[in-house]
Design brief:
Layout (H helix, E strand, L loop, with lengths): L3 H25 L7 H25 L4 H16 L4 H21 L1
Helix pairs in contact: 3-4
């Protein structure tokens, strides 16, 4: 790991691997995408990626899957009711804290 050539090769490889997927769509797609299916697919990609990274983290961040489920349920409910991000975060954290305390009493 202390080899400068290895470090330079690793940084170069990482730069290329992250740069190519960002520049390829700019080079390959000329103009506006007209396909409704492709447009709707691309519209939902960020939500799917964010969900796929967040949901596993929710269940591994607590002591119990039950408290994680309580927090997730409260967060979804508050989010769907149009509450602010701060309210959703505080509500979900409070639900997890209460569930953890309740589960410790059992």
């Amino acid at each position: 790991m202390d080899n400068p050539a290895y470090l330079a090769a690793a940084i170069t490889t990482m730069a290329v691997v992250t740069y190519v997927p960002r520049v390829l769509p700019l080079l390959l797609v000329r103009g506006r995408i007209k396909s409704p299916f492709l447009r709707s697919f691309l519209y939902y990609v960020p939500y799917a990626v964010l969900s796929s990274m967040t949901i596993p983290a929710i269940f591994s961040a607590t002591l119990s899957p039950l408290s994680a489920t309580a927090g997730l349920t409260v967060a979804i409910g508050l989010g769907l009711s149009g509450r602010s991000l701060l309210t959703v975060a505080l509500g979900a954290s409070s639900a997890v804290w209460i569930a953890e305390r309740f589960l410790n009493l059992l």
